[in-house]
């Protein structure tokens, strides 16, 4: 069996017709014909949750089967990780990465691409440290993407947003072929054809689109708006945060525009993803290929007063991620799977499908029983909880219906565990020595010693949150303060503790979450 | 409204900012390259390099403080 894993970054589940007729954020339909075509063929998972957030933590869950956010933030593959491509190669399977996800090549996240037999890296997305000329890129695009008060093109500091305008300066905004998703998916289609004579392969396609900046070529830029998408007054790269104040503030007009460009990018991704489906058809590859489509997280588009991710409570818009799987031997193609599943489960699923050994002591549970057997029985046995969140902030749990968000005390530091002295709160800049670090075999899933040092906690919200996502899928009513739901709140709190105990989470987590002293919550 | 980045403040400055009614903490304000090098604040949506957080907050009426500090040159908007 071959495995094709496709991640479409920041793809919101409600933008897929398979889940929602009209996306929650807009009042118009968004074209996703090819994702819909794939959903008709695939098993569609209704209750799939992210685990460790955001981008790279999700990728370590997929690559190494570890729910890292209880121990460490965004960071590299660790020496004790057995990665998907490493295990595949050790079992004679060709491995390939096709991506424009530049975080793999940036400070803070080494070790992911190195295990593949081959990798294609489409350069230039977001802050990719690629081009240094022209020194003064297109002024109009700079206006749309960059706060020039902070990020002058004349400045050379890390993560200067004017990098993007420089990277794409020679792109033709009327030629979608210049842009990122078209190139990533075109290259994927080519790779499938070029490597058709290998006995077995694992190909991982990691599209940075739909991720911002929402700089979109025609026809997509004008597809969902009557505005001039090249109007320098209209931003296509909003800062993360509240839409009602601060640097992330957006007027109603600006927010509508951002939504339209997000929607346009979804359709662009969809059309070029369709070329991969076409190539699988042409190669008659479906009968020996498992195809997985998923995303790392969603993206808030004004809901609850927020734009983007990271700073707010981890609503289901962010955490309830799309997961669609075609498995040639599954009797459940075209069906809905109601079982609660987690991002980390892809690790064991892919290894089993490749007939490669699944290491012990991972947090991953294979989805193959759900795909191959009686989904009802398998769902009962798969998982009772899914944990998700960001290292350093709230820890969240769902049972598939109720979501429970447990805030941290921001004054209690969070322990960071790694073989590297990573920056726990500043991922993208050079690391600094941690003179307060101690070393030891602190992790339950490895005998390897690691450093342990404190990082800062921060509050995504201050109150306990409880939502019934069956009755309130948009999570607009917090039930935590309602007496009628005291029992549910206590049950979900206990489920959180059970999950933490099952994973043997660090003692520090209980302290910072107030789980040992707060008997009322 | 004053926004500050968790990575850009030491414990004292964080404590001080926490007590300012219109100050908001962010886990990251997406100015990592500047954040790595020097203190900054985002005041009413505008990015400002500052000599120190404490200095910029000496007067909790930050509008008045901002105007004063821009006049005396201890705070600058944008690139230097």
Structure, described:
The complex is a heterodimer of chains A (521) and B (80). By secondary structure, chain A is of the alpha/beta class. Chain A folds into 2 domains: 2-115 and 174-382, Alkaline Phosphatase, subunit A (3-Layer(aba) Sandwich), CATH 3.40.720; 386-512, no CATH class. Chain A is built from 13 helices and 19 strands. Chain A has helices spanning 33-41, 55-64, 84-90, 139-145, 162-167, 180-194, 252-282, 316-319, 345-353, 368-372, 375-382, 486-502, 507-512, and strands spanning 2-8, 43-49, 52-53, 94-99, 118-121, 201-207, 241-242, 289-294, 300-301, 306-308, 323-326, 336-342, 386-390, 395-398, 402-406, 414-418, 438-440, 450-455, 465-468. Chain A has an 8-stranded mixed beta sheet with strand order 5-4-6-1-8-11-2-12, sandwiched between helices. In chain A, strands 3-13-14-15-19 form a 5-stranded mixed beta sheet. In chain A, strands 7-10-9 form a 3-stranded antiparallel beta sheet. In chain A, helix 1 (33-41) crosses helix 7 and helix 6 runs parallel beside helix 7 (252-282). The longest helix of chain A is centred in the middle third of the chain and has 31 residues, at 252-282. Mean pLDDT of chain A is 96; it is low at 517-521. Chain B has a 5-stranded mixed beta sheet. Chain B has one domain (2-77). Chain B has 4 helices and 5 strands. Chain B has 80 residues and is an alpha+beta fold. In chain B, 34% of the residues lie in helices and 25% in strands. The radius of gyration of chain B is 11 Å and the shape is globular. The chains are: A alpha/beta (521), B alpha+beta (80). The interface between A and B is medium-sized, with 37 and 26 residues.
Topology:
The complex is a heterodimer of chains A (521) and B (80).
Chain A: E1 2-8, H1 33-41, E2 43-49, E3 52-53, H2 55-64, H3 84-90, E4 94-99, E5 118-121, H4 139-145, H5 162-167, H6 180-194, E6 201-207, E7 241-242, H7 252-282, E8 289-294, E9 300-301, E10 306-308, H8 316-319, E11 323-326, E12 336-342, H9 345-353, H10 368-372, H11 375-382, E13 386-390, E14 395-398, E15 402-406, E16 414-418, E17 438-440, E18 450-455, E19 465-468, H12 486-502, H13 507-512
Parallel strand pairs in A: 1-6, 1-8, 2-12, 3-13, 4-5, 4-6
Antiparallel strand pairs in A: 2-11, 7-10, 8-11, 9-10, 13-14, 14-15, 15-19, 16-18, 17-18
Chain B: E1 2-5, H1 11-18, E2 23-26, H2 32-35, E3 40-43, E4 46-50, H3 53-56, H4 62-72, E5 75-77
Parallel strand pairs in B: 1-2
Antiparallel strand pairs in B: 1-3, 3-4, 4-5
């Amino acid at each position: 069996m071959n495995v094709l894993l496709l991640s479409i970054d920041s793809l919101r589940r409600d933008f897929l017709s398979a889940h929602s007729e009209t996306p929650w954020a807009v009042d118009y339909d968004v074209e996703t014909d090819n994702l819909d075509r794939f959903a008709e063929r695939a098993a569609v998972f209704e209750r799939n949750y992210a685990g460790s957030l955001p981008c790279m933590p999700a990728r370590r869950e997929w690559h190494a089967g570890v729910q890292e956010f209880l121990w460490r933030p965004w960071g590299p593959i660790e020496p004790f990780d057995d990665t998907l491509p490493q295990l595949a190669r050790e079992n004679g399977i060709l491995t390939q990465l096709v991506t424009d996800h530049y975080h793999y090549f940036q400070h803070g996240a080494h070790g992911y691409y190195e295990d593949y037999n081959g990798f294609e890296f489409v350069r230039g997305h977001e802050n990719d440290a690629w081009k240094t000329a022209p020194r003064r890129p297109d002024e109009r695009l700079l206006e749309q993407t960059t706060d020039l008060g902070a990020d002058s093109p004349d400045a050379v500091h890390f993560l200067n947003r004017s990098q993007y305008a420089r990277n794409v300066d020679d792109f033709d905004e009327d030629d979608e072929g210049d842009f990122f998703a078209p190139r990533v998916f075109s290259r994927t289609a080519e790779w499938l054809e070029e490597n058709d004579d290998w006995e077995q392969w694992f190909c991982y396609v990691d599209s940075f689109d739909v991720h911002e900046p929402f700089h979109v070529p025609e026809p997509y830029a004008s597809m969902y708006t009557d505005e001039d998408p090249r109007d320098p007054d209209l931003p296509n790269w909003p800062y993360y945060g509240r839409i009602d104040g601060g640097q992330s503030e957006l007027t109603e007009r600006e927010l509508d525009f951002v939504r339209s460009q997000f929607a346009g990018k979804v359709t662009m991704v969809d059309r070029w993803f369709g070329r991969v489906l076409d190539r699988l058809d042409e190669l008659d590859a479906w009968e020996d290929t498992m195809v997985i489509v998923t995303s790392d997280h969603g993206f808030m588009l004004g809901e609850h007063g927020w734009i983007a991710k990271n700073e707010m409570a981890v609503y289901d818009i962010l955490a309830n991620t799309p997961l669609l799987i075609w498995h040639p031997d599954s009797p459940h193609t075209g069906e809905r799977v109601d079982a609660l599943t987690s991002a980390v489960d892809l690790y064991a699923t892919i290894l089993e499908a490749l007939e490669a050994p699944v290491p012990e002591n991972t947090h991953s549970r294979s989805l193959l029983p759900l795909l191959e057997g009686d989904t009802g029985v398998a769902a009962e046995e798969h998982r009772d909880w899914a944990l998700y969140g960001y290292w350093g902030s709230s820890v969240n749990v769902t049972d598939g219906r109720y979501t429970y968000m447990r805030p941290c005390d921001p004054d209690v530091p969070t322990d960071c565990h790694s073989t590297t002295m990573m920056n726990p709160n500043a991922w993208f800049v050079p690391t600094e020595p941690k003179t307060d670090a101690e070393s030891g075999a602190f992790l339950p899933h490895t005998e390897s010693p690691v450093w342990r040092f404190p990082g800062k906690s921060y509050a995504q919200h201050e109150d306990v949150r409880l939502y019934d996502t069956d009755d309130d899928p948009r999570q607009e009513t917090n039930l935590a303060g309602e007496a009628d739901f005291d029992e549910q709140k206590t049950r979900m709190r206990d489920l959180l503790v059970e999950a933490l105990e099952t994973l043997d989470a660090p003692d520090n987590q209980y302290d910072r979450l107030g789980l040992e002293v707060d008997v009322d919550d | 409204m004053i926004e500050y980045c968790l990575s850009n403040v030491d414990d004292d400055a964080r404590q001080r900012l926490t007590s300012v009614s219109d100050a908001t903490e962010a886990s990251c304000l997406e100015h990592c390259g500047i954040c790595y090098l020097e203190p900054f604040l985002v005041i009413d949506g505008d990015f400002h390099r500052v000599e120190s957080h404490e200095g910029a907050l000496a007067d909790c009426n930050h509008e008045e403080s901002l105007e004063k500090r821009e006049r005396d040159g201890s705070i600058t908007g944008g690139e230097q």
